[in-house]
Amino acid sequence: MRGRKPGRGRNDQNTGSADDEWTALATYIYHDRLRSRHEGLFFDAKVQVTWRRRFTVTPVKAHWRAADLVNRAIEAEAPSMSVRRVSAAEHRLAAALAATFPCVHEGLEVVAVSVDLAVDEATERSAKSFERQLHDMELDELARRQAKARADFIRSEVLRDPANARIYALASSSDAEGRLGDLGQVERLLDELRWWDPESRWITTARLFQTFAERLSDTQQRDLLLVLRQGLVALGDQREVEQFDVLHHTSPPQRDSPTHR
Q1: Helix (H) or strand (E) holding 53
Q2: Using H for helix, E for strand and C for coil, what is the string for 121-152?
Q3: Which CATH number does the domain 16-119 belong to among 3.40.50, 2.60.120, 3.30.70, 3.30.479?
Q4: Would you say the pTM of this structure is higher than 0.90?
Q5: Which H/E stretch holds residue 204?
Q6: Looking at residue 242, what is its pLDDT?
């Protein structure tokens, strides 16, 4: 640190102009409350500033300039620090201040700054409560993301077709090998998988048919359903016809009842 050379006074003619002269080092201590990264929670700070001024700068002006320089450096760092980690906050603040000072500005030199931090019990309790709430929120958000991912997987993969649903049920079972059954059941499951393959003939036909039906008017779609129903009546069984009627609200054509004379 540079200070005044011993034996030289303000009016010493051998030292040049007064603008080149510095006062002796002075130390100023003040207390402040610093914002932390937790909304509404503050550090209690004891700030010690060592500084000196040129003789041409008044003590009052030098005092306010020093306070302004130091406060700006501290307030740039404190809002990112946690009141739950006071020691870490002090070390971090000390490193930031050491990188800033000494600093010469408008006839003032701030030589060194030290800050002691503390928090009261009420602040400590509030910080703990804040961290618990934040932790609970993070857990809730994680659970929501996991639930959404599972729902998306079930919707896109498991419920894509009955065969996939059966495989998923088997894979989720602790006794999947035992539930799979004999060789005949395995072959039936493989046949079902081939049937529901997206590139299989009938799945492709169903997609083409759906695309075609969507272009039709409501009346044309109704006529198409009646044609399909006639095919079921001719080639299917009564249960399939009944299921078709329930699904599409179709019914057989009504015949005129005989008139009685």
Answers
A1: strand 42-53
A2: HHHHHHHHHHHHHHHHHHHHHHHHHHHHHHHH
A3: 3.30.479
A4: no
A5: helix 201-214
A6: 87
